[in-house]
Amino acid sequence: MSTSTPVARQSRRQRKPRSDIKLGLAFILPATIGLVAFYIWPLIRGIWLSFTEYNLLTPEEFTGLDNYKRMAQDDTFWNAVVVTVEYVVINIGLQTVLALLIAVLMQRLTQSTFVRSIVLTPYLVSNVVAAMLWLWILDNTLGVTNQLLESLTGSKTDFFSSSLAIPTIAIINVWRHVGYTALLIFAGLQSIPSTVYEAGKMDGASEWRMFWRITVPLLRPILALVLIMTMIGSFQVFDTVSVATQGGPVNATRVLQYYIYDMAFGRFQFGYASAMAVGLLLVLAAITILQYRMTRAGETDLD
C-alpha cells in the first residue's frame, strides 16, 4: 500500500527535469581550452605581431603598416606566391581527377573494406616520411628511378631541378593524399540512390553519360568540400619542400609557407613573417568564400 500523499505525487510530477548544461560544458571544456590556447590566442598574437618589429631579443615595437608595405615590394614574396599557385594548380588538378576516378571505380567494381584500407594507406604515412621516401626513390645519384632510367635510356633525370621540382613535389603529395580524398568522394557516391542509375539505364544512357549527367551534379556538395579542403591544404605545403629541396634550387620551390618559416625561425623577423601569415589567411578566407558560393556547396540536387 502506497504511503505517498496526493500532494507529494503532484510535487514529483511538477519537478523540473535535471539540466544537462553543466555536464555538456564539462565535456566541451577540454576542447575549448585547446581551441583558445592553440588557435584563437596564436591568431590574435600573430595579427598583433604583424604590425610590429619583433626578433625575440627585444620587445616588439609597433610599426603600423610597414610590414605590409614591405610585403608589397618584396620580389621574393611574390616569387613565393607564384610558386605556390603553380603547386596548388598541379596538386588540385591531379588529386581531384584521380580521386574521383578511384572513387567511381571502387563504387562500380568493388566496395571491399580491404580495398578501401589499401587506398588509404599512403595517407597514414607522415609528410616527412613520405618526402624522405620519395627523395630516396627520385634522387639523381642513388635513386632507384634514375638507376632504372639509366639502364633503359642511358640518361638520368633530375626530378628536383628548377623546372621539375614543383611538379615532382605536387605528385608526391598527390600520392599521399589522393586515397583520403577518394574516400570522401566515395562516401558521397554512397548517398546517391541506385534508382537514379537504374532509371538512366532504362533510358539507354551510357556509363559515360550517366557519369556527367547524374554522378557529377549530385556530387557537387562533396566535390565543393573536397576542393575547399585541398585548396587550403595546398597553400600550406611545407613538409615536402623542407625535406626535399629546402626552397631550392634558386627559390624554385620556395613556397609561401616555407618563406614564412624561413623569415620567422631562420632570420627571426617575426613581425614580417606574421604579416605574410595574415595575408595568407585573408587570401584563403576569400578563396574559401568564393568557392563555397560558386559551387553552391550548401545545396544539393537530391531533394
Describe this structure in words.
It contains 14 helices and two strands. The longest helix is centred in the first third of the chain and has 35 residues. Strand 1 and strand 2 form a beta hairpin. With 303 residues, it is mostly helical.
Residue runs with pLDDT of under 50 for 5 or more positions: none
Q: Give the count of helical stretches.
A: 14
Gross morphology is globular
Strand % is under 5%
- SSE string, helices as H and strands as E: HHEEHHHHHHHHHHHH
Mean pLDDT: 88
Number of strands: 2
Distance between the termini: 58 Å
The SS-based structural class is mainly alpha
Q: What value does the Rg take, in angstroms?
A: 27 Å
Q: Fraction of residues in helices?
A: over 70%
Sketch the major β-sheet: 2 strands, antiparallel
Identify the strand order in the major beta sheet.
Answer: 1-2
List keywords for this structure.
two-stranded antiparallel sheet; 303 residues; 1% strand; mainly alpha; 2 strands; 14 helices
Structure at a glance:
With 303 residues, the chain is mainly α.
What is the secondary structure topology, with strand pairs?
Blueprint (H helix, E strand, L loop, with lengths): L5 H9 L6 H29 L2 E2 L7 E2 L3 H7 L2 H35 L3 H8 L6 H12 L5 H10 L11 H26 L3 H9 L4 H12 L1 H16 L3 H6 L11 H11 L3 H25 L9
Antiparallel strand pairs: 1-2
